[in-house]
Structure to design on (376 residues):
């Protein structure tokens, strides 16, 4: 094999070795066998909360163990294809197998980062909020583009997406929206996206075709279960009801079923209009409020809490975490890690893994990048 391919194979083998050690395959295999036996107990679901946690742990272990096995098998297959192609002088087969190795390296790198998602709430489902900044229609349209971007990212990764609240803009776009993203490590991945996002483009709403800069903010907080106790005094919460928003049509409830809860001591507010009844929306809103306050507590414990919170104080200049420039050139640049790409269409269609991975690695390893210059 060529030296480049041998180096690639060796890097993958080293990464797999790190994954095996991090997971402690022997111990995890024994634990999975134990969980499978417990799952067969007919009395398991007498305690739904305990059963749910057990099944989540089992699914997580199954995914991790089968993932390592799959990578090892694919590596063996690719090496075999390269050796066969070289023996028969078939450059096409060798090139195809080399491309497969490069894709496998990316998959292993992703799994290495997922192994670092060991924070208290990283494995939880996630709420994601998008809020338009100042600027009216421009920012509201940008907020809708961001909402679509995250929805596409989630769906591409097999996550379930549910719209909890959506407030339409006056002419186009949205003022705000909240979605729930359900899937393994949803919060661990999405927490890297919290902050202000800046867009530069020729405005489709400007008859003079001038460049406009728009800002929207993204907030992310984990969906918590009953095992997390967050005590909130009802006297500290103001409840408001309103008609559900959305795009209209037969699926929008015309009664005052939407519920907004405002936690007076912190100013935190949540809105839910996903259900058709006020009772259901109120219960969901309380879950969302507990999750928001829990996320705030997590932030206080993190070393980077001050910096993260500062990034969200204003939806405008000097606070953005990422810039998306569509005119006069194409560029998306993350101002925390320096990662950038000219594939703006791919990013806006949900190809965010490189940005998320870099931010996770920076947080995990404390990689210092210095001050990163924004794009015009």
């Amino acid at each position: 094999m060529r030296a480049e391919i041998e180096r690639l194979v060796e890097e993958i083998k080293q990464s797999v070795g790190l994954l095996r050690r991090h997971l402690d395959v022997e111990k995890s295999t024994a634990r999975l066998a134990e969980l499978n036996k417990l799952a067969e107990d007919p009395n398991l679901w007498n305690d739904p909360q305990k059963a749910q946690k057990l099944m989540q742990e089992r699914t997580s272990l199954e995914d991790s163990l089968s993932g390592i096995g799959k990578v090892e098998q694919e590596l063996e297959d690719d090496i075999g294809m390269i050796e066969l192609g070289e023996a028969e002088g078939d450059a096409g087969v060798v090139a195809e197998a080399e491309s497969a190795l490069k894709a496998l390296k990316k998959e292993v790198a992703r799994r290495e980062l997922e192994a670092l998602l060991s924070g208290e709430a990283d494995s939880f489902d996630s709420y994601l909020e998008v809020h338009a900044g100042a600027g009216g229609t421009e920012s509201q349209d940008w907020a809708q583009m961001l909402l679509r971007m995250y929805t596409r990212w989630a769906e591409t990764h097999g996550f379930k997406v549910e719209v909890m609240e959506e407030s339409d803009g006056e002419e186009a776009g949205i003022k705000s929206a909240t979605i729930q993203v359900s899937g393994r490590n949803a919060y661990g991945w999405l927490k890297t996206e919290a902050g202000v996002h800046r867009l530069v483009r020729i405005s489709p709403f400007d008859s003079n075709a001038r460049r406009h800069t728009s800002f929207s903010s993204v907030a992310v907080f984990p969906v918590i279960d009953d095992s997390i106790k967050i005590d909130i005094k009802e006297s500290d919460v103001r409840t408001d009801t309103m008609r559900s928003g959305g795009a209209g049509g037969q699926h929008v409830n015309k009664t005052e079923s939407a519920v907004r809860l405002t936690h007076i001591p912190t100013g935190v507010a949540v809105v839910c209009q996903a259900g058709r009844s006020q009772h259901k929306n109120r219960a969901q809103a309380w879950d969302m409020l507990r999750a928001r306050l829990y996320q705030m507590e997590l932030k206080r414990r993190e070393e980077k809490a001050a910096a993260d919170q500062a990034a969200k104080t204003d939806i405008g200049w000097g606070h953005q975490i990422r810039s998306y420039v569509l005119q006069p050139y194409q560029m998306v640049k993350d101002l925390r890690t320096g990662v950038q790409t000219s594939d703006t269409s791919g990013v806006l269609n949900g190809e965010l893994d490189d940005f998320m991975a870099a931010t996770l690695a920076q947080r995990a390893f404390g990689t210092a990048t210095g001050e990163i210059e924004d794009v015009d």
The radius of gyration is 23 Å. The first strand starts at residue 126 and ends at 132. The first helix runs from residue 3 to 23.
